[in-house]
Amino acid sequence: MAKDALVKTGAPAEAAPQGPHVRVSRMQAKLHRWAVADDGHRFDDLFNLVHDPATLYVAWTRVTGNTGARSAGVDGLAAGDVQAAGVQDFLDDLRESIKSGQFRPMPVRERLIPKPGGGGKMRRLGIPTIADRAVQAALKLVLEPIFEADFEPVSYGFRPRRRAHDAIAEIHLFGTKGYRWVLDADIEACFDTIDHTALMGRVRARVADKRVLALVKAFLKAGLLTELGEERNTPTGTPQGGILSPLLANIALSVLDEHVHAPWRPGGAMSTSSRRSGRRRKGLPNWRIVRYADDFVILVHGTETDVHTLREDIATVLEPMGLRFSRSKTSVRHMAQGFDFLGFHIQWKRKAGTNKWYVYTFIADRPVKALKAKLRALTRRTSLASLGATLERLNQILCGWSAYFRHAVATHTFKHLRQFLWWRIVRWLKTRHRWRWTALRRHLTDHNGRWKPISADGVVLFDIEKVGITRYRYRGAAIPNPWTVQATALAVESPLR
Question: What confidence tens digit (pLDDT) does each residue in 225-260 have?
Fold first, then answer.
C-alpha cells in the first residue's frame, strides 16, 4: 500500500443512499481497517470526509446529545439557539465555510471549576463555540479510527468501549501475579502543557492531508477568552472541554505507552511468560503500564530501585512532549501500602483469619467524602425543597455512584452510606414537621412496627445497601472497538500467558 494514498469518499456529498450514521460507520470501519493493515500508511484526502454532510450531521447529533450543549461559547450561541433557527441551514453554512477554507475557530471561553479533593486548586475548562464543537466532532469521527489502530492496549481513558473498570481489573490481575511495586504517577497540567510541535509531528505520522492538519493546528492555536474578558494565546496545550482534546491528548501520551509497553510486543524482552521468568531469575525487573488519560501507574515485578530507575527513564520520554511529573501526586510505593487510582483504593493485604494475601479493590476515601458532601447539601435541616423532588435527585446520584463502585469491596461502605442518608433525611423531617420520635415512628413504620422505606409523591428512596457486589472480569484482548468486525467473538487472552 502506498505511503500517501488517497481516501475515496464514495458517493457524491449530495447523494445519501444510506442513513448518515450508517455511512459514517462504514467510512470509519474502512479507515480503521486500512490503518491496521499498514502501520506506516499516511492518509490523504481526509478533508472531504470532514465536511461530508453525513459526517457533519452525525457530529451535530454527538454535540447536541451531550449535556454541555446547553453551554454557550464566546459567541453566546447554544445548541438550542441553532435548533430554533434551523439546524439544516446551520450545517449547510458550516459545510460551505469549511469547504471554502474560510472557517476559523474562535477562542474558547474559559471556565474555572474546583478540582476534586478541595485544596483550593482550580481546573481550567475551555468551552468552544457550538460551530467549533461540531467541526471538532467531525474531525474526531474521521481521525479516531485511524489513531485507534496505533494505540496500545494498556490505555483506557477516552477511548471507545473502554472504561475505568478495565484499568482497575488489569492492575488487580498483575498485582496478583507479583507486580507489587508501583509508580503512582500523574502528569502536571497535562492538557495545558502539551507541546504543539511535538503533537503535530505525531499527527502527521498518520495524516498527510494538509487541510486537515491546518484545521487541527487552528484549534490548538485558537486562543482563550478568560473569565475576566481577556484574550490569551495558547502556545501549548489543548484545552480541557473540547471534543477533540481527549483524542489529541491520547495521541501525545501514546509516546509514553509505546516506550513503556515496547518490551511486551511480539519478540520483545517481556513478550512471553518464559522470557519474563528468565528476566526475574537474572534479577531483572518486569513492568506493566496502565494509563487512564493523564493518570497512570506502572506496576513493577522487581525492587524499589527498579521503580525509581523507570521513573527517571519515563521523565526523559515525556520531556520532548512538554510534559513532566506532578511532584505532589507522583509517588513510589508498595502495593501493601495501597494506592488510589480512579476513585478506587487498591491494596495487597492479608485476608482476615488466614495467612493468605490477596489484592483487594476498595472504594477510596475521596469519593466517599465527595458523595457525603452532596447528600448533606440536599438534606439540610432547613431545606424547603419538596421531599419527592429531593428523593428523585438522591436516587439519581446513588444509582450512578453505586453502579460505578459495585465491583469493589463495597458491602460495608454501602451499608454505612445507607444509614448515613437515612439519618440525614429523618433529622430533616423531624425539623420540618416538628415531630418527636414517637410521631416520626408513627409515620415511618407499618402496623407491625417495621420501618418502611422513605417515600413521597410515588418516589421511594433508593436502597444502596441492596446493590449487588459483582466482580468485574478482566477483558484483556477481548475489548472490542466499534469498527472491528466480529470483535465480540474474540476469546479473552491473558497477556501473562
Answer: 988 888 999 999 987 888 999 999 999 999 999 999
Question: Taking the model in full, what pTM does it have?
Answer: 0.90
- Residue 70 backbone phi and psi in degrees, to 5: -75, -15
3-class secondary-structure state, position 328: coil
Nearest to 478 by CA among 263, 170, 265, 269: 170
Other C-beta atoms closer than 10 Å to the C-beta of 110 total 20
Neighbours of 155 (CB within 10 A): 22
Going 203 to 101 to 223 to 55, the CA torsion angle's sign is negative
Question: Under DSSP, is residue 244 helix (H, G, I), strand (E, B) or coil?
Answer: coil
Residue 4 has pLDDT above 60, yes or no: no
Which H or E run contains 297? Answer: strand 295-301
Distance CA 497, CA 271 (A): 9
Strand partners, 456: 459
CA distance 162 to 172: 16
Radius of gyration for the chain, computed over Cα atoms and rounded to the nearest angstrom: 26
> Count of CB atoms within 10 A of residue 363's CB?
22
Please identify which residue in the block is written with the cell numbers 461559547: 73
Question: Which alpha helices (H) appear in 77-118, and where do they start and end?
Answer: 79-85, 87-100
Q: Establish how many alpha carbons lie within 13 A of residue 193's alpha carbon, considering only the half-sphere containing its beta carbon.
A: 14
Give me the numbers of helices (H) and strands (E) for the chain, helices first please.
Answer: 17, 15
Report whether 393 contacts 367 (CB < 8 A).
Answer: no
Q: How far apart are CA 298 and CA 339, in angstroms?
A: 12
Residue written as cell 462504514?
26
* Helices 411-433/365-378 angle, 10° precision: 20
As beta bridge partners, residue 207 has 43
Taking residue 448's Cβ as centre, other Cβ atoms within 10 Å add up to 5
